[in-house]
Design a protein that fits this description.
CATH class: Alpha Beta
Number of helices: 4
CATH topology: Muramoyl-pentapeptide Carboxypeptidase, domain 2
Largest sheet: 5 strands, mixed
Strand content: 15-25%
Number of domains: 1
Distance between the termini: 32 Å
Number of strands: 5
Oligomer: single chain
CATH architecture: 2-Layer Sandwich
Length: about 120
């Protein structure tokens, strides 16, 4: 396991199917690091980069930004309604984040949309 910054390692950003695909934006990694430092609670990367095959298996969009390393689905370790709301507030205050998808158990963030958009799952 190779640590790529203070909080995340290569295994967390590598495609979860086991293929070894690992393409991830340094900018997004910096944003995740900042969110983690501000929250003082570990972030869990439910899904980061994905190969095309794994993206299809999990029902990802054909042009998913996970395919190019510009998206991550995150949750908090020990997520409560309160700390989830704090995380959402921080995400919304981060101008580089242009896509925000709010699921029941995770929050999708990406840096690839032209204009900011937000949606629910």
């Amino acid at each position: 396991m190779t640590c790529i910054n203070n909080y995340f390692d290569e295994a967390e950003i590598t495609c979860h199917c086991g293929c070894g695909f690992k393409k991830f934006s340094p900018k997004l990694l910096r944003i995740l690091n900042q969110l983690r430092e501000t929250m003082y609670i570990p972030l869990y990367l439910n899904s980061a980069c994905r190969c095309a095959k794994h993206n299809k298996v999990v029902g990802g969009a054909v042009k998913s930004l996970h395919l190019v390393g510009k998206a991550a689905d995150i949750s908090l370790v020990g997520m409560t309604k309160l700390n989830r709301e704090v995380l959402l507030k921080l995400i919304r205050e981060t101008p580089e984040i242009t896509g925000i998808g709010i699921g029941k158990w995770f929050i999708h963030i990406d840096i690839g949309h032209g204009e900011r958009c937000e949606w629910g799952y």
